[in-house]
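User: ok so my PI wants both of these folded by tonight, can you help

Assistant: No problem, let's get them done. Here's the first:
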Amino acid sequence: MISFAVAASAANVSADGFRLPDQDAFATARGEAFVATADNASAIYYNPAGISQLQGGNFRGGIYGIYLPVSYKSPSGRSFDNEKDLQAVPQLFLTYTPDESRLSYGLGIYAPFGLGFHWPQDTGFRTLAVESQLTYLSINPVVAWRILPNLSVGGGLTVNYAKADIQSGLVWPDQPNDRFRFKGDGWDVGYNFGALWRVHEKVSLGVSFRSSTKINLEGHTEYYNNVALPPVPAFPNQRVSAGTDVHFPLNVVCGISYRPTPKWNFEFDADYTDWSTMDTVTIKQATGFASLLPKDISAALDWKPAWYYKFGGTRYLDNGWSLSAGYIYSENAMPDAHYSPLIADSARHWLSIGTGHKGRRWDFDIAYQFGFGDGTRTVSGSAPSATGQTADGKYDYISHAVLVTAGFRF
């Protein structure tokens, strides 16, 4: 019984690792359609070849604040809300292009994955999922080379740190009398690269690639049971050294930018994430506990690759001002059979709008983004825990986000 509950929680270690593609307010206002524009320091993330368009030194930093009031309706008709609904993620970018040089240099610090969920104890899926938090930070030095006046390439290393904290119940269906918890962190190195080609004075093509990473999260598992539920005895809090490998996915983005006049910029991007690396997660423990838990606990995920389709436009106004708007459609990656409430995954629509100002030295942008599911996602046939709980039910996804970015040229 306990081993099944723990295996379900093991799946959530990776399931919480969803993407955070929102790394710059100007790009977000355009629906993240930026790979073929990439004309500020956040290009380090979106397309490192783009920093070759910048002169001198450029600093750009911001914060992404998101409100996630995701709701769940059980098969019995009870409704619950995610209690970890307000979160924030920062990002920083710095670039430098020496005078008369074809080389540009950059450094980005940002979080391409992360966030978390916290559900009440009496949802009906307590022994599958209660709470999660993933922190994933990338330190990304890059170099770009302007091969020709209209063609640049760029790339660099990503030094990545991840920390996960996952909690669920063990056997009790609706009371906090027991708990399973996994905490761990680790490092890995990956890479990213991109190309930017202005094929015509009105048309640019962009492509970027971000490698997959495999981070070994080393830490420990904790579990306890205050009240015996035969055949499971009561036992005090236990801690066992444990670790798991999490395969974060590769990502490829291709886009085309069309500028009919200097006052307008439209772009369409196709964005592919290979979530199939989320196939199976195994927590390896130093030892089991009282013969109740095996040393190796595995859980199938069977995620599938997914696409983002992005479209955005910018109207450049007088005196350095601009207005942008965008739309994204994203596919879901998680099948019903292995659905996790700690993701609330569904096909989604994203609408965004924003404004910004570019001055002689300083600039700023602010964007608002509204996300909503492609209708209510009804999950059925999900794998039950040993106590019979499942993730079946109806999930409604909605989000409100604001991203503020400021920049300085020196």
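One down. Here's the second:
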Amino acid sequence: MKKHIVQTAHDLGFAACRITTADPVSPERLTSWIGEGRHGAMRYMARNPEKRCDPKTLLPEARSVICCAMAYGDEGLVFGDRTIGRSNDRTKIARFARGADYHVVVREKLGELAEAIRKRIPDVKAKCCVDTSPILEKVIAARAGIGWIGRHTLLVNPEFGSWFVLGEIITDIELEPDEPIKNLCDACMKCVDHCPTNALEHASLDARKCISYLTIECKDKTDSDSYGCDVCQEVCPYNAVKSEGAD
């Protein structure tokens, strides 16, 4: 069943698909980050942080989490003519937002993956999640071995860097979990050193300084027509490696 799931995920356009258990992750770093006020005005992050760390909050019967990564290139996700179209100046728009809305694309593809599982196990319970769901997807995906969490706090995969978005299916099927992979950042500090607002420190992000936060989460409070920031990803050595299908 696991081989079928992984192969189907690749056939649907996901660059990686790995499995982890539905066990909770430690809330320690999240609660510390919130306690320091680094979440800024994202008050939703401070609501029930422990529940964000437990997939069973979203599906009480959960036994496994299927973690999927969808890579994107310079034009963002290319998916028909579904573009977001925020600005004519692409240099002001982060790559993930230049193409199709990944929330729509990833949720649609996860739905197709869940349906493929349902054809083999009709009574399966499956909850599809993108980053709007209250779950710590990066930490869970790191546990599944999709990548490691770099100093820029983004997930890095040794084959296709950090140019990807995540999606998950929480399910009541018990699947063999994959192992995490080694953090290969070593002594590299490029993302920290090049952050234009010094928002990165000790593998932690101060959202209050981050351009992405200021131009996306706090868009109504800024005059900038920018949307996001890619500097920390652009300087990452692993982003010199390009996956099949990415620009």
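The helical segments are 2-11, 28-35, 49-52, 102-120, 137-144, 190-194, 211-217, 231-234. Residues 2-240 form one domain. Good luck tonight!
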